[in-house]
Specification:
Helices cover 45% and strands 10% of the residues. By secondary structure, it is α/β, with parallel strands linked by helices. Helix 2 crosses helix 8 and helix 6 crosses helix 7. This is Metallopeptidase-like protein. It comes from Mesorhizobium plurifarium. InterPro entries: Creatin/AminoP/Spt16_N.
C-alpha cells in the first residue's frame, strides 16, 4: 500500500524545489548520479567546500571553447568516454564504451554541444542543460555494433558531422578528433573534413582546473580516506577481503 495520502502528497507544488549542496535537485529518485547526504555530512565535518556542478560544467565547456578558438578549429569530436564526460558530464556505460566506442560528442567553437548516445539512452542525459542536441545511435560504427555494415554506418555518421561542421564552421573544415575507428576516419576524409589532433586539445583544456574541480578532488579524496580508514578498523587475520568492506559501517562506496 502506498504511504502517500491526500495530506501527504507524492507531488506537491506548494513545497517548492529543494537543492543539494552541489546545486543539484534534492531528489534521489532521479537519473543523475551523485553524492548522498552521508557524503555531504562527512565533507561538512571536515570543513570541505562542496563543488557547484552547474558552474563546474560551464567552466569545462568554456575551457574547450577557448582551446578551439586558439587553434582555429570548427569544433572537436570526442569518442573517448573521459573526454565526453568532461565536455558534457554525461557518463553512460563508461567502461563498455572504452572497448566499443559508440558514443560521441561534438562541441563547436561557439559552445554548441551535440551528444550521440547509445540506442534508447537519450533520456539518461536529459537533465544536463549544456547539451543542445541528443541523438540516439549513429556513432556506433565499431564492428561489435555495426558488423559488416561498419563502413555504411561510418558514412552516415560522417554526413551528420559534416552538416554540423558546415553549420558552425562555415568554410573552416578543421575538426579536432580525439580518437576514432578506421572506418570513421576514412569517412570524414571522404567528405573533406581536415582531421586534427583532438586529444592534444582536450588535454590542454583539462590542464587548468577551476575552483569547483579542485573542491571536487578534495571531497573525493576525503571520501576515499574515510572508507579506507573504516575498512582498516575492521581488519582481522584470516577474514576474506569482501568482509572488510561489508562490515564497515556507513561507508559510501566502500565496497567499490
Amino acid at each position: 500500500m502506498s504511504s502517500f495520502t491526500i495530506t501527504n502528497r507524492k507531488i506537491d507544488p506548494t513545497k517548492g524545489v529543494a537543492f543539494k549542496p552541489d546545486g543539484s535537485i534534492y531528489d534521489n529518485d532521479r537519473v543523475e548520479i551523485g553524492p548522498t547526504d552521508l557524503a555531504f555530512a562527512e565533507w561538512a565535518d571536515r570543513g570541505l567546500t562542496t563543488p557547484n556542478l552547474e558552474r563546474m560544467r560551464k567552466t569545462r565547456l568554456d575551457r574547450i571553447v577557448q582551446q578551439l578558438r586558439h587553434r582555429d578549429y570548427a569544433g572537436v569530436l570526442c569518442f573517448d568516454p573521459v573526454n565526453i564526460r568532461y565536455a558534457t558530464d554525461s557518463s553512460n556505460m563508461q567502461i563498455w564504451i572504452m572497448h566499443n566506442p559508440s558514443r560521441a560528442a561534438f562541441i563547436s567553437a561557439d559552445g554548441y554541444v551535440v551528444l550521440w548516445d547509445f540506442h534508447r539512452c537519450g533520456h539518461l542525459s536529459g537533465y544536463l542543460p549544456l547539451i543542445n542536441e541528443t541523438r540516439e545511435g549513429g556513432a556506433g560504427f565499431v564492428y561489435f555494433v555495426a558488423g559488416d555494415k561498419k563502413e555504411e554506418a561510418a558514412k552516415q555518421f560522417a554526413d551528420q558531422v559534416d552538416e554540423l561542421v558546415r553549420r558552425f564552421g562555415g568554410k573552416n573544415r578543421r575538426l579536432a578528433v580525439d580518437r576514432i575507428e578506421v572506418p570513421g576516419l576514412r569517412a570524414l576524409d571522404a567528405v573533406g573534413i581536415e582531421v586534427c589532433n583532438g586529444m592534444q586539445l582536450m588535454e590542454h583544456a583539462r590542464a587548468i582546473k577551476g575552483i569547483d574541480e579542485i573542491n571536487a578532488m578534495r571531497c573525493s579524496l576525503a571520501t576515499c580516506e574515510i572508507a579506507v580508514a573504516k575498512m582498516r578498523d575492521q581488519l582481522q587475520p584470516g577474514i576474506p577481503a569482501y568482509r572488510a568492506a561489508a562490515d564497515a559501517p556507513d561507508v559510501e562506496g566502500a565496497a567499490a
